[in-house]
Amino acid sequence: MGIVTQALSGERRAIARLITVMESGEEQARQVLAELYPHTGRAHIVGITGAPGTGKSTLVNEMAKAYRKQDLKVGIIAVDPTSPFSGGAILGDRIRMRDVATDPGIFIRSMATRGSLGGLARATADAAHVLDAAGYPVILVETVGAGQSEVDIARTAHTTLVVEMPAAGDDIQAIKAGILEIADVLVVNKADLRGADHAVAALQAMLDLNSAHDDGRDGQHHGRLEGIEAVAPGNHSGATNRQVYWRPPVLKTVATKGEGISDVVACVQRHRQYLSESGLQQRREHERAEEGLRRILRYTLLERLLNRIQPSDLDEAVRRIARREQDPYSAANALMAELGLVERQA
Length: 346
Hints:
Oligomer: single chain
Largest sheet: 7 strands, parallel
Helix content: 40-55%
Strand order of the largest sheet: 3-2-4-1-5-6-11
Number of domains: 2
Shape: globular
CATH architecture of the largest domain: 3-Layer(aba) Sandwich
Low-confidence stretches: 83-90, 115-119, 216-220, 222-232, 236-242
Radius of gyration: 22 Å
Structural class: alpha/beta
CATH class of the largest domain: Alpha Beta
CATH superfamily of the largest domain: P-loop containing nucleotide triphosphate hydrolases
Order of helices and strands: HHHEHEHEHEHEHEHEEEEEHHHH
Number of helices: 13
Distance between the termini: 61 Å
Mean pLDDT: 81
Strand content: 5-15%
């Protein structure tokens, strides 16, 4: 029995080995994905993002427990930042989730960003494909908590949770971070701290502001067309001749005590139902496919381009830039001109 067949049958060691293959990015990874891909597309991928210290790992831990109570298998991908100096990563999320790590129905994989921007490791989407094909109907992806650069999760997940906490900064911090627009569900964690109600009110006000801004036009929710009639999640009452769209709910949780977790899980399920009934599921799948293809093309083309440039030419270009003899754009143009990719600038 081959390793792919073993993974498809749910064999945990085979799943772990395949994810390692995906992280390597070698030719074997392409072959494995080609075998796995026809078996994907069944899982619901939930992204959990937010600033460091908001309790994302604890929230993921409690959500996994809640899904297990529903007898659902859960895959967890926890992405940790890589040191720019040593290249290492602590991968501490596995420590914070140790009370679910022994559950045979939960598979946890920690991944290092290895220099990738956007809060995700380069192989995160491929790892999610492995877990999807292996029969995990729910996949939770926790990002590194970099704040302002974490919009990539919205291109990977079907449902995105943005986690805030009381006293996390001024009222416009979420707007400055640029991640309010990617939220399908907003979670104010550590709600037992002072200022939780104020944080909820501030987020609601921001959502109201966005709704007022979109009034009379096609509504946009983190780049996705979703109509202009704001309807609370789960509320199907009342007739309207305007197209409904998903207004991100603001939920309070105390993850360390397990409080509010059932509401979060229920809301994720309602959002999944909304995507299916509104027809947006197919659109998001198209967006995810496009982003995945673009990501692979960017990486592959850049690697092949760098491999064609002589190391001595690259070093000389770096020296000229460092000595202020040439600007970076002109140096890049000169290197590409040597390969016949562009015309040499005068």
